[in-house]
Amino acid sequence: MHSKPHTLSNKILNLRCVLLSLIALLGSGSICAEPSLADTVAKIKPSIVAIGTYMPRRNPRSVFMATGFAVGDGSLIITNAHAIPETLDIEHLERIAIFYHKDNVDKVIIATELAVDKDHDLALLKINDERLPALTLGSTASVREGQLYAFTGFPIGMVLGLSPVTHRGIISAITPNIIPMIQSGQIKQAQFKRLQDPYNVFQLDATAYPGNSGSPLYHPESGQVIGVINKVFVQESKENILAKPSGISYAIPINYVESLLKAKGYY
Question: Do 216 and 152 touch, CB atoms closer than 8 A?
């Protein structure tokens, strides 16, 4: 006669456990449904290309030392201006080219230089033979110091082959691209204009290598690009007074890419 209340309380307790388990399961499901960096990297990689030159009778015929990424309709490639050779060996048919790996094959596509923004070290290239998956350009308005971002590229050029590598780091500072020198003799001619008209860049706590120049800096969940990694141009400006450059990395905000695209009618 006394077992029924006990049985009822057990049922209530079991029901509570089931409800709590269901809530926990639904909660974990919503977390799992959020895109992870691994998912984002898988989507980003097909848009990443190496930047260099191709010469039919050179050994090796393909040489690349920087990174780029597809935007717009997939025929447009963004990279750093310093990644593009100032002169080409036209006599031996040297051409600007992009390189990437697809379907277990290394591919080479000749590219045309459409525009260069030397002030922000950006270059816009175009390919005609194929369309690559284009990355989405994000907004820099919400970028804050301390936020985590990732970048994918070819850190040491041809050494690692056409296998894009991903790094991540926080925005450690939003800072001017050049710091005033104490002595005017420390200012190089190329840096003088930057000193007159400075702009903010993203400073990262991640280490980028020369081959990372031109890599997209993107949100780890949405994949939206908020900057372009720059290992040479900004570092030369900000760290000119250092005997040995630091391992600090920088990125050019994506709004300058938007301006470059708009100037050519592509945005």
Answer: yes
